[in-house]
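Local shape tokens

___
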Amino acid sequence: MPAARWLRWGQARPLLQFWPWLLLLLGLMAVRFSKGSLVTDAYALLTRPFWPGTAQGEWVRSAQGSGDQLRLRQLERENERLRGLLQLPRAAGERVEAPVISRQTGGWWHQLVLGAGALQGLRPGQAVIAPGGLVGRLSSVTPSTATVSLLTDPTSRVGVWVGRTRRHALLSGIGTSRPLLRFLEKDPQARPGDVVYSSPASTLLPPNLPVGVIQSIDETADPAPEAVVQLIAPLDALDWVQVLVR
């Protein structure tokens, strides 16, 4: 009997050596025929104890609610901003609203590109305004886009006057956020805080569009005093403008 048992054990021993491979083969076949669902279910079963509980669910819902409130507040602010854009003081001529679709970082104070063009009635030379007042003029137009030369562009020259004294001057861009006001006479009688408007004598722009506020005056400049102007319209944060179509 012991010899018979030893014989049977000796015959089964080679099979036992291959049982890990048999299990692996069966596992691969199960994955193959179940198309991976068996592995997914097994993973879900093993990781279930680590799933978020009810408290985590409440935290997620609370965070989602807070995010919705923040988005609602942002939409309300955007709505108010657009309302302000539509309530700008009316100037002569029709207006075309256009989004700002491009602006180069290296030329931030030079130009910007609008998402409207000749198909909407835009033409080179037309005035561009934003909440607060004038921002520039159209320098070039394609059928669907237009390029704005800002008042801060070094090539920009605009005739203006000081509303309080009615003294005329030339507003010149210098490539920074504040253009330079060059007066035409030695005693312009201007002072910081005076508001600058587009000149009624200008043939390029509608008259009396708000432009900016005098920040400082250099009385020693030659041949006439010069002033630094802070523009009223926020040129650093424009996303919508209006073009005055005459």
